[in-house]
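Hey, can you fold this one?
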Amino acid sequence: MKLAKKEAMSNGLFMKDKARSNGLVMKDKGFVPKVPKSLKETGINDVLLEDLIFKLLLNQGTLSGRQVAHKLCLPFKILEKTLQGLKTRMLVGHRSTTGVSDFTFVLTGEGRKKAIAARDDSAYIGPAPVPFDQYLISVGEQSIIKESPQNKDLMRAFSDLVLEPYILETLGPAINSGRGVFLYGDPGNGKTSIAKRIYKCFREEIFIPKTLLIEGQIVKLFDPQCHERSDRPEERPATYDQRWVHIKRPAVIVGGEMDLSSVEINYNPATKLCEAPMQLKANCGIFVVDDFGRQRMKPEELLNRWILPLEKRIDFLTLPNGIKVQVPFDELVIFCTN
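Sure. Predicted structure:
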Protein backbone atom coordinates (compact mmCIF):
# COMPACT_ATOMS: atom_id res chain seq x y z
CA MET A 1 0.00 0.00 0.00
CA LYS A 2 2.83 2.41 0.84
CA LEU A 3 4.50 1.59 -2.48
CA ALA A 4 1.30 2.28 -4.41
CA LYS A 5 0.89 5.64 -2.71
CA LYS A 6 4.53 6.57 -3.36
CA GLU A 7 4.06 5.78 -7.05
CA ALA A 8 0.96 7.96 -7.14
CA MET A 9 2.79 10.81 -5.43
CA SER A 10 5.83 10.49 -7.71
CA ASN A 11 3.57 11.07 -10.70
CA GLY A 12 2.05 14.15 -9.07
CA LEU A 13 4.30 16.81 -10.60
CA PHE A 14 4.04 15.27 -14.08
CA MET A 15 0.26 15.05 -13.81
CA LYS A 16 -0.02 18.67 -12.69
CA ASP A 17 2.18 19.95 -15.53
CA LYS A 18 0.24 17.91 -18.08
CA ALA A 19 -3.03 19.08 -16.58
CA ARG A 20 -2.10 22.72 -16.99
CA SER A 21 -1.14 22.12 -20.62
CA ASN A 22 -4.52 20.50 -21.23
CA GLY A 23 -6.59 23.32 -19.75
CA LEU A 24 -7.00 21.72 -16.31
CA VAL A 25 -5.93 22.94 -12.90
CA MET A 26 -5.42 21.48 -9.42
CA LYS A 27 -6.23 23.70 -6.46
CA ASP A 28 -5.18 23.25 -2.85
CA LYS A 29 -8.54 21.60 -2.15
CA GLY A 30 -8.10 19.10 -4.96
CA PHE A 31 -8.62 18.68 -8.68
CA VAL A 32 -10.82 21.30 -10.40
CA PRO A 33 -11.34 21.41 -14.21
CA LYS A 34 -10.65 24.94 -15.39
CA VAL A 35 -13.20 26.79 -17.53
CA PRO A 36 -11.82 26.65 -21.12
CA LYS A 37 -11.01 29.97 -22.75
CA SER A 38 -10.65 28.69 -26.32
CA LEU A 39 -11.75 25.81 -28.52
CA LYS A 40 -8.23 24.40 -28.30
CA GLU A 41 -8.49 24.17 -24.50
CA THR A 42 -11.70 22.13 -24.79
CA GLY A 43 -9.76 19.42 -26.60
CA ILE A 44 -12.42 18.97 -29.29
CA ASN A 45 -12.23 20.02 -32.94
CA ASP A 46 -14.46 22.42 -34.87
CA VAL A 47 -16.08 19.61 -36.92
CA LEU A 48 -17.37 17.84 -33.82
CA LEU A 49 -18.55 21.12 -32.33
CA GLU A 50 -20.44 22.05 -35.50
CA ASP A 51 -22.11 18.62 -35.61
CA LEU A 52 -23.29 19.08 -32.01
CA ILE A 53 -24.72 22.50 -32.90
CA PHE A 54 -26.45 21.12 -36.02
CA LYS A 55 -28.11 18.26 -34.12
CA LEU A 56 -29.15 20.57 -31.29
CA LEU A 57 -30.84 23.04 -33.66
CA LEU A 58 -32.45 20.17 -35.59
CA ASN A 59 -33.92 18.88 -32.34
CA GLN A 60 -34.92 22.23 -30.83
CA GLY A 61 -35.82 24.29 -33.91
CA THR A 62 -34.54 27.69 -32.79
CA LEU A 63 -32.13 28.63 -30.01
CA SER A 64 -30.16 31.71 -29.05
CA GLY A 65 -26.39 31.52 -29.04
CA ARG A 66 -26.31 31.53 -25.24
CA GLN A 67 -28.91 28.76 -25.09
CA VAL A 68 -26.75 26.66 -27.42
CA ALA A 69 -23.73 27.34 -25.20
CA HIS A 70 -25.70 26.37 -22.08
CA LYS A 71 -26.85 23.06 -23.56
CA LEU A 72 -23.37 22.21 -24.81
CA CYS A 73 -21.90 23.27 -21.42
CA LEU A 74 -19.39 25.58 -23.10
CA PRO A 75 -18.72 29.31 -22.62
CA PHE A 76 -20.59 31.49 -25.11
CA LYS A 77 -17.35 33.23 -26.12
CA ILE A 78 -16.06 29.93 -27.54
CA LEU A 79 -19.23 29.32 -29.57
CA GLU A 80 -19.67 32.90 -30.79
CA LYS A 81 -17.01 32.62 -33.50
CA THR A 82 -18.23 29.16 -34.60
CA LEU A 83 -21.84 30.31 -34.91
CA GLN A 84 -20.79 33.35 -36.90
CA GLY A 85 -18.80 31.09 -39.21
CA LEU A 86 -21.84 28.89 -39.79
CA LYS A 87 -23.85 32.01 -40.57
CA THR A 88 -21.25 33.18 -43.09
CA ARG A 89 -21.35 29.75 -44.78
CA MET A 90 -25.16 30.02 -44.84
CA LEU A 91 -25.66 26.85 -42.76
CA VAL A 92 -27.59 28.73 -40.07
CA GLY A 93 -29.61 31.92 -40.18
CA HIS A 94 -30.66 34.65 -37.74
CA ARG A 95 -34.29 34.68 -36.69
CA SER A 96 -34.02 37.67 -34.36
CA THR A 97 -31.69 39.39 -31.89
CA THR A 98 -31.82 38.30 -28.25
CA GLY A 99 -29.28 40.58 -26.61
CA VAL A 100 -25.84 42.05 -26.93
CA SER A 101 -23.89 40.15 -29.65
CA ASP A 102 -26.46 37.34 -29.64
CA PHE A 103 -29.13 36.12 -32.02
CA THR A 104 -31.76 33.40 -32.33
CA PHE A 105 -30.37 30.81 -34.73
CA VAL A 106 -32.19 28.45 -37.08
CA LEU A 107 -30.93 25.90 -39.62
CA THR A 108 -31.00 26.73 -43.31
CA GLY A 109 -31.87 24.09 -45.92
CA GLU A 110 -28.21 23.19 -46.38
CA GLY A 111 -27.64 23.24 -42.63
CA ARG A 112 -30.54 20.84 -42.14
CA LYS A 113 -28.88 18.35 -44.53
CA LYS A 114 -25.69 18.60 -42.48
CA ALA A 115 -27.67 18.06 -39.28
CA ILE A 116 -29.41 14.93 -40.62
CA ALA A 117 -26.06 13.51 -41.76
CA ALA A 118 -24.57 14.21 -38.30
CA ARG A 119 -27.57 12.58 -36.59
CA ASP A 120 -27.24 9.49 -38.79
CA ASP A 121 -23.63 9.20 -37.65
CA SER A 122 -24.55 9.56 -33.96
CA ALA A 123 -27.83 10.52 -32.30
CA TYR A 124 -26.02 12.02 -29.30
CA ILE A 125 -27.30 15.46 -28.26
CA GLY A 126 -25.96 17.03 -25.09
CA PRO A 127 -22.88 18.44 -23.37
CA ALA A 128 -19.70 18.57 -25.44
CA PRO A 129 -17.50 15.57 -24.54
CA VAL A 130 -14.27 15.71 -22.56
CA PRO A 131 -11.18 14.21 -24.27
CA PHE A 132 -10.06 10.90 -22.80
CA ASP A 133 -6.57 12.17 -21.93
CA GLN A 134 -8.06 14.83 -19.66
CA TYR A 135 -10.16 12.15 -17.96
CA LEU A 136 -7.05 10.03 -17.32
CA ILE A 137 -5.41 13.00 -15.58
CA SER A 138 -8.49 13.51 -13.40
CA VAL A 139 -8.53 9.86 -12.28
CA GLY A 140 -4.85 10.00 -11.38
CA GLU A 141 -5.35 13.15 -9.33
CA GLN A 142 -8.52 11.93 -7.60
CA SER A 143 -7.52 8.28 -7.10
CA ILE A 144 -9.23 6.51 -4.23
CA ILE A 145 -5.85 5.35 -2.90
CA LYS A 146 -4.98 8.99 -2.15
CA GLU A 147 -7.66 9.15 0.55
CA SER A 148 -7.06 7.22 3.77
CA PRO A 149 -10.16 6.98 5.97
CA GLN A 150 -9.46 7.11 9.70
CA ASN A 151 -11.26 5.36 12.55
CA LYS A 152 -13.55 8.37 13.04
CA ASP A 153 -14.55 8.15 9.38
CA LEU A 154 -15.53 4.50 9.78
CA MET A 155 -17.47 5.30 12.94
CA ARG A 156 -19.39 8.00 11.06
CA ALA A 157 -20.10 5.73 8.06
CA PHE A 158 -21.47 2.91 10.22
CA SER A 159 -23.09 5.04 12.91
CA ASP A 160 -26.56 3.60 12.14
CA LEU A 161 -25.38 -0.02 12.53
CA VAL A 162 -24.50 -1.95 15.67
CA LEU A 163 -21.19 -3.70 14.96
CA GLU A 164 -18.59 -5.49 17.05
CA PRO A 165 -15.40 -3.35 17.40
CA TYR A 166 -13.28 -6.05 15.71
CA ILE A 167 -15.28 -5.63 12.49
CA LEU A 168 -14.22 -2.00 12.11
CA GLU A 169 -10.66 -2.91 13.09
CA THR A 170 -10.65 -5.47 10.27
CA LEU A 171 -12.41 -3.27 7.71
CA GLY A 172 -10.13 -0.26 8.20
CA PRO A 173 -6.91 -1.74 6.74
CA ALA A 174 -8.88 -3.48 3.97
CA ILE A 175 -10.51 -0.22 2.88
CA ASN A 176 -7.23 1.69 3.04
CA SER A 177 -5.55 -0.86 0.80
CA GLY A 178 -7.64 0.42 -2.13
CA ARG A 179 -7.75 -3.17 -3.40
CA GLY A 180 -10.43 -5.84 -3.27
CA VAL A 181 -12.52 -6.74 -0.21
CA PHE A 182 -14.28 -10.08 0.24
CA LEU A 183 -17.21 -10.18 2.70
CA TYR A 184 -18.34 -13.70 3.55
CA GLY A 185 -20.98 -14.85 6.00
CA ASP A 186 -24.36 -16.46 6.56
CA PRO A 187 -27.46 -14.99 4.89
CA GLY A 188 -28.85 -11.97 6.71
CA ASN A 189 -25.78 -11.18 8.82
CA GLY A 190 -25.33 -7.67 7.38
CA LYS A 191 -22.78 -8.14 4.60
CA THR A 192 -24.70 -5.99 2.11
CA SER A 193 -25.51 -3.34 4.71
CA ILE A 194 -21.80 -3.01 5.52
CA ALA A 195 -20.76 -2.93 1.86
CA LYS A 196 -23.28 -0.23 0.95
CA ARG A 197 -21.96 2.09 3.66
CA ILE A 198 -18.24 1.81 2.95
CA TYR A 199 -18.34 4.69 0.43
CA LYS A 200 -19.40 7.00 3.27
CA CYS A 201 -15.92 6.57 4.77
CA PHE A 202 -14.53 8.77 2.03
CA ARG A 203 -15.09 12.48 2.56
CA GLU A 204 -13.61 13.93 -0.61
CA GLU A 205 -15.79 14.84 -3.57
CA ILE A 206 -14.61 14.47 -7.15
CA PHE A 207 -15.22 15.73 -10.68
CA ILE A 208 -16.14 13.41 -13.56
CA PRO A 209 -16.97 14.25 -17.21
CA LYS A 210 -20.59 13.98 -18.30
CA THR A 211 -19.43 12.38 -21.55
CA LEU A 212 -16.08 11.18 -22.87
CA LEU A 213 -14.47 11.37 -26.31
CA ILE A 214 -12.47 8.17 -26.84
CA GLU A 215 -10.88 7.56 -30.25
CA GLY A 216 -13.65 9.54 -31.96
CA GLN A 217 -16.45 7.76 -30.03
CA ILE A 218 -18.70 9.65 -27.59
CA VAL A 219 -19.23 7.59 -24.43
CA LYS A 220 -21.78 8.62 -21.77
CA LEU A 221 -20.20 8.42 -18.31
CA PHE A 222 -22.34 10.36 -15.82
CA ASP A 223 -25.21 8.20 -14.54
CA PRO A 224 -27.65 9.60 -11.92
CA GLN A 225 -28.26 6.04 -10.70
CA CYS A 226 -24.59 5.62 -9.79
CA HIS A 227 -23.45 9.19 -9.19
CA GLU A 228 -24.73 11.60 -6.56
CA ARG A 229 -24.20 15.29 -7.27
CA SER A 230 -22.41 17.35 -4.66
CA ASP A 231 -24.79 19.36 -2.50
CA ARG A 232 -22.21 21.82 -1.19
CA PRO A 233 -24.03 25.18 -0.94
CA GLU A 234 -20.92 27.21 -1.76
CA GLU A 235 -20.46 25.56 -5.15
CA ARG A 236 -20.78 28.04 -8.03
CA PRO A 237 -21.20 26.59 -11.54
CA ALA A 238 -19.07 29.28 -13.22
CA THR A 239 -16.00 28.24 -11.22
CA TYR A 240 -15.33 25.07 -13.24
CA ASP A 241 -15.78 23.57 -16.70
CA GLN A 242 -19.48 22.71 -17.00
CA ARG A 243 -18.76 19.61 -19.08
CA TRP A 244 -17.78 18.06 -15.76
CA VAL A 245 -20.06 17.31 -12.82
CA HIS A 246 -19.13 17.53 -9.13
CA ILE A 247 -20.15 14.34 -7.29
CA LYS A 248 -19.55 12.35 -4.15
CA ARG A 249 -17.27 9.37 -4.63
CA PRO A 250 -19.26 6.81 -6.68
CA ALA A 251 -20.92 3.77 -5.15
CA VAL A 252 -21.89 1.31 -7.88
CA ILE A 253 -23.81 -1.72 -6.61
CA VAL A 254 -24.75 -4.69 -8.81
CA GLY A 255 -26.46 -7.98 -7.98
CA GLY A 256 -27.80 -10.99 -9.81
CA GLU A 257 -28.59 -8.93 -12.90
CA MET A 258 -24.89 -8.51 -13.72
CA ASP A 259 -23.50 -10.28 -16.79
CA LEU A 260 -20.40 -9.96 -18.96
CA SER A 261 -22.04 -7.25 -21.07
CA SER A 262 -22.20 -5.06 -17.91
CA VAL A 263 -18.41 -4.78 -17.88
CA GLU A 264 -18.09 -3.85 -21.57
CA ILE A 265 -19.01 -0.67 -23.44
CA ASN A 266 -22.72 -0.84 -24.21
CA TYR A 267 -23.32 0.22 -27.83
CA ASN A 268 -26.78 0.88 -29.24
CA PRO A 269 -26.60 0.32 -33.03
CA ALA A 270 -29.89 2.14 -33.61
CA THR A 271 -28.81 5.43 -32.00
CA LYS A 272 -25.05 4.81 -32.33
CA LEU A 273 -24.64 5.82 -28.69
CA CYS A 274 -22.12 4.31 -26.25
CA GLU A 275 -22.68 3.85 -22.51
CA ALA A 276 -19.73 3.40 -20.15
CA PRO A 277 -19.48 0.01 -18.38
CA MET A 278 -20.18 -0.22 -14.68
CA GLN A 279 -16.54 -0.39 -13.59
CA LEU A 280 -15.73 2.80 -15.51
CA LYS A 281 -18.60 4.57 -13.73
CA ALA A 282 -17.18 3.34 -10.41
CA ASN A 283 -13.70 4.85 -10.93
CA CYS A 284 -12.43 6.75 -7.87
CA GLY A 285 -15.17 5.08 -5.79
CA ILE A 286 -16.40 1.62 -4.80
CA PHE A 287 -17.86 -1.24 -6.83
CA VAL A 288 -20.02 -3.70 -4.85
CA VAL A 289 -20.77 -7.13 -6.36
CA ASP A 290 -23.63 -8.30 -4.15
CA ASP A 291 -24.60 -11.99 -3.92
CA PHE A 292 -21.40 -12.93 -5.74
CA GLY A 293 -21.97 -16.28 -7.45
CA ARG A 294 -25.58 -15.55 -8.42
CA GLN A 295 -24.84 -13.37 -11.43
CA ARG A 296 -25.79 -14.31 -14.98
CA MET A 297 -22.31 -15.76 -15.43
CA LYS A 298 -20.10 -18.17 -13.58
CA PRO A 299 -17.92 -16.67 -10.82
CA GLU A 300 -14.75 -17.80 -12.60
CA GLU A 301 -15.83 -15.92 -15.74
CA LEU A 302 -15.96 -12.60 -13.90
CA LEU A 303 -12.74 -13.28 -11.98
CA ASN A 304 -10.92 -14.29 -15.17
CA ARG A 305 -12.21 -11.11 -16.83
CA TRP A 306 -10.89 -9.04 -13.91
CA ILE A 307 -7.57 -10.74 -13.20
CA LEU A 308 -5.59 -7.91 -14.80
CA PRO A 309 -7.78 -5.03 -13.50
CA LEU A 310 -7.69 -6.26 -9.89
CA GLU A 311 -3.91 -6.72 -9.98
CA LYS A 312 -2.69 -3.87 -12.20
CA ARG A 313 -5.54 -1.36 -11.73
CA ILE A 314 -6.04 -1.05 -15.50
CA ASP A 315 -8.64 -2.50 -17.84
CA PHE A 316 -9.02 -2.88 -21.60
CA LEU A 317 -12.27 -2.03 -23.40
CA THR A 318 -13.25 -2.46 -27.04
CA LEU A 319 -14.97 0.42 -28.84
CA PRO A 320 -17.66 -0.13 -31.51
CA ASN A 321 -15.05 0.65 -34.19
CA GLY A 322 -12.93 -2.27 -32.97
CA ILE A 323 -10.22 -0.18 -31.29
CA LYS A 324 -9.05 -1.43 -27.88
CA VAL A 325 -8.26 1.20 -25.28
CA GLN A 326 -6.58 1.00 -21.90
CA VAL A 327 -8.69 2.56 -19.15
CA PRO A 328 -8.08 3.03 -15.40
CA PHE A 329 -9.57 0.55 -12.92
CA ASP A 330 -9.32 2.80 -9.87
CA GLU A 331 -11.89 1.53 -7.42
CA LEU A 332 -12.37 -0.50 -4.28
CA VAL A 333 -14.07 -3.74 -5.37
CA ILE A 334 -16.20 -5.45 -2.70
CA PHE A 335 -17.47 -9.00 -3.17
CA CYS A 336 -20.33 -10.14 -0.90
CA THR A 337 -21.40 -13.78 -0.73
CA ASN A 338 -22.74 -16.45 1.58
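Residues 1-15 have pLDDT under 50 and may be disordered. Let me know if you want another pass with a different chain boundary.
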